[in-house]
Amino acid sequence: MHNDGSPAPIRAVPMVADGRLALWACIRSTGRAKPHGTSIPVRDDPKAPAMTSALAAGFALGLSLILAIGAQNAFVLRQGLRGAHVFAVCLACALSDAILIAVGVAGFAVISDAVPGVVPVMRWGGAAFLIVYGALSFRAALGPAAALEPAEAGAGSLTKALATCLALTWLNPHVYLDTVVLLGSVSTQYDGRQLAFGAGAVAASFTFFFSLGYGARLLRPLFAKPAAWRVLEVVVGLTMWAIAAKLILG
Q1: Which residues touch 82 (CB under 8 Å, ≥6 apart)?
Q2: pLDDT exceeding 90 applies to what percent of the chain?
Q3: Contact at 8 Å (CB) between 212 and 86?
């Protein structure tokens, strides 16, 4: 302390050589840090960035595979516009994708090689279902305007909505190609991190379907007009038949 009563400035006291050596020996023995100038940084777990990278890759690929409009997405969009069993439909789609992704990551290629007849059966069955569903959409578009009003259409049967949703999912061979074959094959590139990759793809599916189902309500003012519903039904019908034609033609 100075004579005038003011505190004396604190001076940095350097570490003694023995102290530095002891500290460095301790750090080297634990393998958690290394000296860098006067600081002692802590090394991060090398597995954490790898897991995050696999998770992000699975999310990005899974989202890109389901962004394009298809039979399943068109059905979820229409349910969302009508406010009919939105949660149940979105959950059924997301859970179905989760199961298929899990099968793909576990190795669906082995199953398809062991039972080669699975692919043709799913292809023709899915094509037949899509043709019928597309025809129903065209009939709705050409029907009376009252049949196209969302308020008058009602929520409909939950059982019927779930049955249609599950049929559009499980009878579509492209779903197996995307979720099982493609995602399953890509997951093999992440040795030891397949679980993180699959979790990212599942997260993408849940994010997409619930965003599509509940985000559709923003378009309700547009679809208050019967003409907009006619256009939607025509688009849905064309989508169904285009996918069916692609399945038939191989």
Answers
A1: 150, 153, 155
A2: 18
A3: no
Q: Which residues is 205 bridged to in the sheet?
A: none
C-alpha–C-alpha distance, residues 188 and 169, integer Å: 24
Q: Are 102 and 115 in contact (CB under 8 A)?
A: no
- The predicted pLDDT at position 218 comes to 86
pLDDT band at 99 (very low <50, low <70, confident <90, very high): very high
Q: Contact, 175 vs 100, CB < 8 A? A: yes
pTM: 0.60
Dist. CA 180–CA 168, nearest whole Å: 16
- How would you class 23 by CB atoms within 10 Å of its CB: exposed for 0-12, middle for 13-18, buried for 19 or more? middle
Cβ-in-10-Å burial (0-12, 13-18, 19+) of 13 comes to exposed
Distances (CA, A) of 147 to 88, 141, 166, 174: 23, 9, 24, 31
d(CA 135, CA 130): 8
181 has a pLDDT exceeding 80: no
Instruction: For the chain, give the number of residues.
Output: 250
Report how far residue 13's alpha carbon sits from residue 104's, in angstroms, rounded to the nearest whole number: 62
Q: What is the C-alpha separation between 185 and 128, in angstroms, rounded?
A: 28
Dig out the tokens for 81 from the structure.
């516009």
Q: What is the C-alpha separation between 40 and 23, in angstroms, rounded?
A: 10
pLDDT tens digits, 193-244: 888 999 999 999 999 999 999 998 887 787 767 787 788 788 878 877 887 7
